[in-house]
Automatic annotation (TrEMBL):
Homodimer. The keyword Lipid metabolism applies. It comes from the Eukaryota. Residues 208-381 form the Fucosyltransferase C-terminal domain. It catalyses: a beta-D-galactosyl-(1->4)-N-acetyl-beta-D-glucosaminyl derivative + GDP-beta-L-fucose = a beta-D-galactosyl-(1->4)-[alpha-L-fucosyl-(1->3)]-N-acetyl-beta-D-glucosaminyl derivative + GDP + H(+); an N-acetyl-alpha-neuraminyl-(2->3)-beta-D-galactosyl-(1->4)-N-acetyl-beta-D-glucosaminyl derivative + GDP-beta-L-fucose = an alpha-Neu5Ac-(2->3)-beta-D-Gal-(1->4)-[alpha-L-Fuc-(1->3)]-beta-D-GlcNAc derivative + GDP + H(+); alpha-D-galactosyl-(1->3)-beta-D-galactosyl-(1->4)-N-acetyl-beta-D-glucosaminyl-(1->3)-beta-D-galactosyl-(1->4)-beta-D-glucosyl-(1<->1')-ceramide + GDP-beta-L-fucose = a neolactoside IV(3)-alpha-Gal,III(3)-alpha-Fuc-nLc4Cer + GDP + H(+); beta-D-Gal-(1->4)-beta-D-GlcNAc-(1->3)-beta-D-Gal-(1->4)-D-Glc + GDP-beta-L-fucose = beta-D-Gal-(1->4)-[alpha-L-Fuc-(1->3)]-beta-D-GlcNAc-(1->3)-beta-D-Gal-(1->4)-D-Glc + GDP + H(+). Belongs to the glycosyltransferase 10 family. This is Fucosyltransferase.
Length: 384
């Protein structure tokens, strides 16, 4: 008797779980959010899922079990890709800021195969996807395609600038199928950099030689920026080596590498504060063996992308003076300072190749994910 009761309880628990999945499936099948704000896959066969769920609800006395594997398969968004599938063609409609890149590098750099990039607009009708860079789209859309869009074709909106530095245009609503940006809730996520596991296992990291305490390189100086205001207070309590056009001290790319790696701390101050807007100002110091001092979105946002022990956040301190005192302590205590590099035993940092990363990953995305997608309210999502 006890075994029967226990078995019935287990069955009821499993039935409850299946019903919860079914209700969620039905809800997300008929409620289509305008942006990809939930990390829940789109159903490629909604009718099949609906039928399974309805059948589960009709089970007499709940004595039958739905095949959970079949539901799991329905939740799988990516379609299998084989070597015999034809190449996926992605048309680069406009070079981002006019910067061209190697159209044949997806395989060698990212192990993305079966994708063919082109900038030949005569291939428009044959292209599975078209990539558009937001900052290069004219306000009147005069440089957008004039031909009707083929039904199978996906238009991808690409942008790496923050909302503060991107013009909002109402005409862009209901125009694109996919988004590719640094935003974590983009359809195609392309952050400014990545932290990846070391392929060879745990390693010993050697911190580069340091002869400077704090450095900052700025090209775009604006006294109204939060970073400028923080800097003015911060420099009263600690010595800061400054470079860049903002300080009338431009440096070359080669000098940039040498300067950043020679500093114990680098001011990774963003020019505007927005969700997920974490740029090369953070990833470059991480790559070059320098501890970033971050000013941008909250620490929690940073920790979605990089180890919390790899950087210092200005919000960790009550004032610029308190932060300055902390950096001075680390300067005098090598053991404490080196703790900021323990993550390098297991991970490496890399930067994004602007434009190429977007194109290769966008092509790979539309090759693998065949579901229909529409960005109805781009402005509300990005600028809202």
């Amino acid at each position: 008797m006890e075994l029967q009761i226990s078995s019935r309880v287990c069955q009821n628990v499993l039935i409850t779980m299946v019903l919860l999945i079914c209700f969620s499936a039905i809800f997300f099948t008929y409620y289509k959010p305008t942006v990809n704000w939930l990390k829940w896959p789109t159903f490629s066969r909604p009718d099949s899922c609906r039928d399974i769920c309805i059948n589960a609800l009709k089970m007499s006395n709940q004595t039958e079990m739905v095949n959970i594997t079949s539901i799991t398969n329905l939740l799988t968004q990516a379609e299998p890709v084989t070597q015999t599938d034809p190449d996926t063609i992605l048309l680069i409609w406009m070079w981002p800021f006019g910067q061209k890149f190697d159209l044949g590098s997806c395989g060698s750099l990212y192990s993305i195969h079966g994708c063919r990039l082109t900038d030949n607009r005569s291939q428009f009708n044959n292209s599975h996807g078209v990539l558009f860079h937001h900052r290069d789209i004219h306000g009147d859309l005069s440089n957008m395609p004039k031909l009707p869009r083929p039904l199978f074709q996906k238009w991808i909106w690409m942008n790496m600038e923050s909302p503060s530095h991107s013009a909002q245009r109402s005409a862009l609503n209901n125009l694109f199928n996919l988004t590719a940006s640094y935003r974590l809730d983009s359809d195609i996520l392309v952050p400014y950099g990545r932290i990846s596991e070391e392929t060879g296992g745990k390693t010993t990291y050697t911190v580069p030689h340091k002869n400077k305490l704090v450095c900052w390189i700025v090209s775009n100086w604006n006294s109204n920026h939060k970073r400028s205001q923080y800097y003015r207070q911060f420099k009263q309590h600690i010595s800061i080596e400054t470079y860049g056009r903002g300080f009338s001290k431009p440096i070359s790319n080669e000098d940039y590498l040498d300067v950043v790696s020679s500093c114990k701390f680098y001011l990774s101050f963003e020019n505007s504060i927005h969700k997920d807007y974490i740029t090369e100002k953070l990833y470059n110091p991480l790559k070059l063996g320098t501890v970033p001092v971050a000013l941008g979105p909250p620490r929690k946002n940073y920790e979605e992308l990089i180890p919390g022990s790899a950087f210092i956040h200005v919000d960790d301190f009550s004032s610029p003076k308190e932060l300055a005192e902390h950096l001075k302590v680390l300067d005098q205590n090598e053991s404490l300072y080196r703790q900021y590099f323990t993550w390098r035993e297991h991970f490496v940092a890399s930067s994004t190749h602007f434009g190429l990363d977007h194109a290769c990953r966008a092509c790979d995305h539309i090759r693998r994910y065949k579901n229909y997608r529409a960005v109805n309210d781009l402005n509300g999502w990005y600028w809202g």
